[in-house]
Amino acid sequence: MKKPASASDPLWYKDAIIYELHVRAFADSNNDGIGDFPGLISKLDYLQDLGVTCLWLLPFFPSPLRDDGYDIANYEDVNSSYGTLKDFKTFLDAAHQRNMQVMIELVVNHTSDQHPWFKAARLAPPGSPEREMYVWSETDQVFKEARIIFTDTEKSNWTWDEKAKAYYWHRFFSHQPDLNFDNPRVIQEVLKAMRFWLDMGVDALRMDAIPYLVERDGTNCENLAETHAVIKEIRAAIDEDYANRLILAEANQWPADVRPYFGDGDECHMAFHFPLMPRIYMALRQEDRLPITDIMAQTPSIPNNCQWGLFLRNHDELTLEMVTDDERDYMYLAYSADPRMRINVGIRRRLAPLVDNNRRRIELLNSLLLSFPGTPILYYGDEIGMGDNIYLGDRNGVRTPMQWNSDRNAGFSRCDPARLYFPVVMDPIYGYTAINVEAQLSDQSSLLHWTRNMIALRKLFQVFGRGTLRFLSPANRKILAYLRDLDRGDGSHETVLCVANLSRFAQPVALDLSDYAGYEPVEMLGYVPFPKITKTPYVLTLAQYSFLWLELHPNDGVTEVSGEGLA
Length: 567
Ligand code: GLC
Ligand code: CA
Hints:
Blueprint: E1 18-21, H1 23-26, H2 37-42, H3 44-50, E2 54-57, H4 85-97, E3 101-106, H5 116-123, E4 136-137, E5 158-161, E6 166-169, H6 184-200, E7 204-207, H7 225-241, E8 246-249, H8 255-258, E9 270-272, H9 276-286, H10 290-297, E10 307-311, E11 318-319, H11 325-335, E12 342-343, E13 346-347, H12 351-354, H13 359-371, E14 375-379, H14 437-441, H15 447-459, H16 463-466, E15 468-471, E16 479-487, E17 493-501, E18 507-511, E19 520-523, E20 528-529, E21 538-542, E22 547-553
Parallel strand pairs: 1-2, 1-14, 2-3, 3-7, 7-8, 8-9, 9-10, 10-14
Antiparallel strand pairs: 4-6, 5-6, 11-13, 12-13, 15-16, 16-17, 17-22, 18-21, 19-20, 19-22
Helix pairs in contact: 9-10, 9-11, 13-15
């Protein structure tokens, strides 16, 4: 008997709306300045109202927090600042009661140097089982072709350890030694940690930094066949014992290199589409659809049980690793005027500041996020247009406390403001007195209400999560137009036409919709019937940064509208 999960449909993740949050940043229940599980539980009503269906929690395990918890010191416990294992279970049950799935992090490429395995490894003799948990070398001249990821802080992927009298390997910070996946004991330990959480009922695992598990000299140590073998082993263990779970690959790679992480449907169920993300920003700034259509043309098809994970922003910098040198120069110029906004190979800013707090641009980007093929992932705070604090170090500027209301500390905590893990944003534009949940709940025209409506609308149409994509190619390149289509299986189709204006000025467009001659488009937010499609080009006019979602009805005079009206 496989252990069931909270979702009953094995493909639940295709229809999910994922919300990424950090327990530490969400709500503080005991007023010590640090968010915690009881605080998060108290905000589940808010998340349910927003309409998100899956909560992705950033690492909450015991950790020295030198990489915000991605430096794990114990895989099978909760960081005491955030609560106890019991609190986590209470949270998990409470989320499940609200029909929300829960995704947590499986960070197995590396541990903290404070993990007991590493402490033992440094002291153990070379070749011993303890030492072999990590990757050691007498010289730093091996694996020379592996790039450095944290270019601002690290000079080498090797660090000399005085106690061990050897170099240890690390793809990220030097305090994050990489585990040695050539050692079968490492895989056993990973599976044990994984089962610990899956047994408890966790629905999904984000597999952090997955391309770097195995290293071989003479290669760039990324995406190796040996790494894929490890992932297949992990997936097989899940399929053997657990029903309806999900693993999500964090593989920041070109589409052709990400494709193998789906395997034949026997590796990861989902993978982030990293290259698409910066190109959405590029298309917006250049007022040209080409960057988007170009990367989608390079995106291979994936097995039926697989899905892309789409995002506009997350807890990391807007990474520019998967763009060309020219594109990178352009992005830095267009989106990071102040050098402080840059980190490593990317830009550390939130969604609203990236688009100059322009509401129309925020809505336009979200309309793409919610209508492109894949599962949308929202980053906490972006639903109210939170700002960032570029004066905080590392990527912490986008990890400030959630802004609930205009009370002390944005309603996040009742503690002395000096005690907060990070200060709340206080500037006049994005500060918590201007941008907060309470104010936006009482304002019917707020971004929060808009986001909630769009999520609700998207959930009425399975075509967005499961349908095919076909771009139209109108002469006006400032217009991005595409058809999403889902064969319902009974001969009928759910077909949606999406049209987006990337320009800061109004634009006309003539679309070739002759395949749909006779159909009636119905605008989906307002259920407004549009003129019937004919064999001649279909002409639309779009205001600056506006978009249209039109459901195409094959009707003969009578307007049938699927779904229920949204107020
Ligand atoms: C992933 C995380 C990032 C972290 C890194 C190292 O890329 O998203 O936040 O710093 O892994 O663990
Ligand atoms: Ca607390």
